[in-house]
Amino acid sequence: MGKLRQAFEKNDVQKDFLGRLFSSPIVRGFYKNENPAVDVGLVGSKYEQRRMTALINKIANSSPMGREILEDAAKAGFSFGFERQSSSYGFCDAEHKTIRLNPRTSDAQLVATLAHEARHAQQHTRGVPTKFCTFDVATELKLRRATEADAQASAVQVALEIRAATKDDSVWKAFAKTNEKIARNIEEPDKLKPLDAVVADRDATMRDAFKGWFKNTGMIDNYERGYLYTHLAHAGSLYDPAKLADYFAEKPFEGSKSSAEIVATVCMNGDGKSYFANDPHILDREPEMCGLCKETRNMADAFFREREKVTGKPADTSYKGLPSRGTLFGQMMMNLMLMPREIKTPTDRKAPTPALTAALNRLRQGR
Length: 367
Ligand SMILES: [Zn+2]
Known about the structure:
This protein is mainly α. The protein is 57% helix and 4% strand. It has helices at residues 2-15, 17-21, 25-28, 46-60, 64-75, 107-125, 137-166, 170-178, 180-185, 195-200, 202-213, 217-234, 241-250, 259-266, 287-290, 294-311, 332-337, 354-365, and strands at residues 41-42, 79-82, 90-93, 98-101. The chain is globular, with a radius of gyration of 21 Å.
């Protein structure tokens, strides 16, 4: 399946004429023919590569943190390119080492998106597994949220460093417009604050931005549903015992990372220190960070009861003591409107309710 997907991706990148049009001089004007400041594999047409180079150089020539993130992604072998997406600005596929940006999106937004997606690549090389349901439920819940909050915190810092270095605030403005709750949660530096001072405040800014991500409960619902609930629910649609046993093997839900270990791995900066070094238990504090909804809890109970019956493996009890954070489907349709592209569950062809299945499928097909 991996190979097949790769083949499709290659085709998409090489033959998507409409996608290429969005990066062509007709739509974007001319980009300079310059070398990328970071030695990374670029895919796509000549104009797409020039456009990507402009985005890379905007980051690498102005933001010390951004440069480091891009260099790490390049060293890890990620390629950068464009791919049309219906509901997101970009994605990072760590399994195939690809970062793809949506060509229809503005350059200002894509600069922040590139920093965000390259940060996911960096998280992966630092030990965050890409396969969902690797760890026990409590770990998965906190880990997937933390990786997204950290990627957004990184985009914030990069955008503010670019603004300080160039006095061009377009990247920061584009980010703040689409992520109001995060932007409101940070102490926005004065526009004239020099780059050195913005860099010196990095950890404080990233802490606030990280916490700001958790203010958007609709987004947290989407992540809980996409990364956890649908994977648990899928077992209920498998009636063939052999397929069910395979599924349980594929989604081990085993092994645990403490909140402090998650934070130490995910919330790390270039100096090898966590920006939450003084607050390592941050993830244990609020239900938005460590809690789960009623439906997820019930689905987990059912999943592990069935797994014990089929495989004899003892049930995961990691989530039993976690706080509750209400119901998952209370505002489902509202939240689906905000569903990020990164939530993709390629193995889950059947979801728990027809409405959710249809909505998820629409989002996937729109890629
Ligand atoms: Zn992300």
